[in-house]
Structure formats: structure tokens, C-alpha cells
Amino acid sequence: MNNKPLLTTLALAVALAVSGCAMLEPQLPQADAAIPAEWPLPPTTASGKTAATVRAGAPAAMEQAVADIGWSDFFIDPKLKKLIARALDNNRDLRVAMLNVERARALYNIQRADRFPSVGANAALNRSGGNVANPGSVYSASIGTAFELDLFGRVHNLSNAALQQYFAQEEARRSAQLALIAEIAGAYLSLAADMESQRVAQATLDSQQSAYDLIVKRHELGAVSALDLAQAQTTVETARADMARYAGLVATDINALRLLVGAPVEAELLPQGFDLAVSGIAPLPAQLPSQTLLRRPDVLQAEHLLRSANANIGAARAAFFPSISLTGSIGSASTELSGLFESGTRIWSFVPQISLPIFQGGRLTANLGAAKADRDIALARYEKSIQAGFREVADALALTKTLAERRAAQQALAEAAGRVHQLSKVRYEQGQDSFLNLLDAQRSLYAAQQGLVAAQQAEQSNRVNLYKVLGGGWVESSK
User: Fold this and answer.
1) Residue 6 — pLDDT band, cuts 50, 70, 90?
2) Sheet holding 323-334: strands in order across?
3) Pairing, β 118-128 against β 346-355
4) What residues have CB less than 8 Å from 366, skipping those under 6 apart?
5) Half-sphere exposure (Cβ direction) of 458: Cα atoms closer than 13 Å
6) Which phi and psi (to 5°) does residue 400 adopt?
7) Cα–Cα distance measured from residue 340 to residue 342, given in angstroms and rounded to the nearest whole number
8) CA distance 411 to 424
9) Which of 66, 279, 339, 479 is most exposed, with the fewest beta carbons within 10 Å of its own?
10) Which residues are bridge partners to 119 per DSSP?
């Protein structure tokens, strides 16, 4: 038998399949996020230096893109590093994100399998009877194959769409890891700040209690009025109430940290107070190109989803054209099981099929319209992710300077309030000032100290947030 025409036809079909795979997929639309090339900020950092000056004296890690700075290099607190490492192994949300990646990979492999011929073995017994000419049993064993000629790229586009979905899930995992690290750092800073506020409240309570005990004795001797005694008691009870409030906040902060870590947290891993050296990277310069947003995992995820939706349009277009499938088998058949594989029992079949849609009630047109709408939705979401990322970075950079100024002003306020309290205490003890003035000085000092803790926490949290929104945190080490 001459197989040359068949081979020629198959070669032509393969050539058409290769050339037609991407023929119906439209060109990927360009995103127009309408954002400036740089963030609208003055060329100064939080310290007031120019960006060039900061870069000249910055550590080597500052010369890298923020997305390339590993979280173990960004954070220098050893306790926080241990908590983050433990969370990456135990956090359930991150575990779900990783399993979603595995699921997307499996779905892609399922879809990708359609691009290759499927081969299977079959064994059967066909027993017939009744009013037939040759009743009896027929034993058969065969190996068959089926393959769809992807002339118009339907299978290829569906496989590409599944591949982009897999890539999107991988970026979602990175984004989940980035968010987890930032949440742990935020919870760690909140716990440290509440512990520091509790310490300030305890010190204030001890001081006010000692002063109140002294005033009670002086009141018994008639040296101070009942009004002074009542006013002194208000400061004691205020500090006592704050102690109870901060004790509750510390307990809830520890519970939140345990949930994020996904495992028990030993007492030695908890902060003992607020440490200003949580992160080891200096404030980032303001003149950073907005193109750095394109490396954020959430932006990359939106891009892959856009590519997946665009590939689905090609598959929807290919549904309008004929589909050709080739099915064949070769094997042996015999009326006796013992003679199944003897000579003269070979059988074969070759069944090419062409399926051409003629009338579908508008189903194919509607499917194509839905695919185009999904692509446009994905494009809008991609642009929105870039715009949202731009705003997050711009906000964090804008707060870098203002929060540093706030922390410096709050530091000066606390120092000034401390001097006022000391002078007011001396004047009251010498009888030159009323107890009411001393009481106001005590309250001002306490508020300034608590305000300083809040300002320090806000500055450190914003630095962690800036590291996150610039795309850092999903790699472990820069080395």
C-alpha cells in the first residue's frame, strides 16, 4: 500500500497547525494606566538630604531594586526574623496560596495534554446471539490513538490561557507572602508599641501613686486641701485605667501574632520594648521611577490574567471554524481467546472526523463576546492595579518625611514636657505654685510620652509599608 499521499496530508496538516496556532489570538492590548513617570514628590528624603546625597552614603543594598532586597536583609531584628521564617512554614493562608499554585499547575497539565495524541489499550469480548447468521463470541485487543489537528489554534490558546492562569497563581502566592511578612512586621511593631505604652503607663502609675500617698499624709496633717487630694487621685486612676487598657492590647496583639505565625510564639521571641532599629534600610530616595511598580507581584498577576483572557479570545474565534480529529487503532480479533494473537487476526481502523458548526443559536457569537468582555475587564483591572500601586507608593513616600518630622517634634515635645514637669514639681514643693499646675504638667508629660511612642510606631510601620508596596518581601535573601 502506498502511504505517500497520507504522509503528505499529515505533513500539510502539521504545518497548518503550527502556523495557525496563534493566528486567531488578537494582539495583546497596551495598558494605559495614565500615571506619571515619577512620583510627585520634592527631591528630598525624610532626613532632608538630596536623593543623590543619600544614594552616595547608602549601603550597597540601597543600589538594588527594592524587589530584590530580601526580607532577611531588610529586617535586622533577630526576633522578628525568626517569627517571619516560622510564619512562612506554618501560616495557613500562605499554605492555601501555595496549594492554589499546585492546583493551577495541575489544571495547566490537564489542558496541555490535549496538544498531544492520546494512546490507550483496549480489550473486549463481544458475545452475540439470537436470529443472526453467525452467533458467537469475538475476542479483541487493540491499541488506539486520538488526536485533534489544531489548525486554528483552539487547543494551543486554551493551553496558553491555562499557563497564564498558573503564572498568575504563582504571583498571587508571592503577593500573599509579601502581605504576610508586612502583617507580621506590623503586628510585631504594634505589640512593641503597646508594651512601651504599658511601660510608660506603669512608670506613671508608680510615680503618681507615690505622690498620692504623700499627699494623703499631708492631708491628714492639714497641709493640703481635700481638692488637692481628689485631683491627685484622678491622675492615679487615669494611669491605672490606661494600664488595664494596654494590658488588654498587649494580650490581643500576642494572639494576633500567634495567628499570623501559625504556631506557638515563645516569650523570648516577643519584643521587650519599642526598638527603632527594626528595619536596616535607610529611608528610600524620593526620585524612584514609577516603572518599579511593574515588578510588584499583584501587578504581574493582573498582567498574566490579561494574557490568559486574551488567549481565550483566540480559542473562542477558533470555535467558528472546522475541527479535525484523527482516531485510529490497531490490534487483533479472534473467535477464540487462545488464537487472539495468531497470524491472520490483525485488524486496524482509521477514522478522520471533521466537525463544522452550522447553526448554534448564537452560542459561538455570545461566547466570543464574553471572551472579549473578559479581556477588557482584565485590562481595566491591570490598569487599576498599576494606578493603585502608584498611589500606595506615593502615599508611603509622602509620609516618609512628614512622619520623621512628626517623630522629631514629638521627641522635642516629650523632652520639653519633662522639663516643665520637673520645674512645676519643684515650684509646688516650695509652695510657689498650685497643685493644679503640677497636675497639668503631669498630664502633658504623660500625653507627650504616649504620643512619642505612637509617632515612632507610625514611622517604622510606614517604612515597612514602603518596602512592601515597592514589591519587596517575597525573596528571602539578596545574596
Assistant:
1) very low
2) 118-128, 136-149, 323-334, 346-355
3) unpaired
4) none
5) 17
6) -55, -50
7) 6
8) 20
9) 479
10) 145
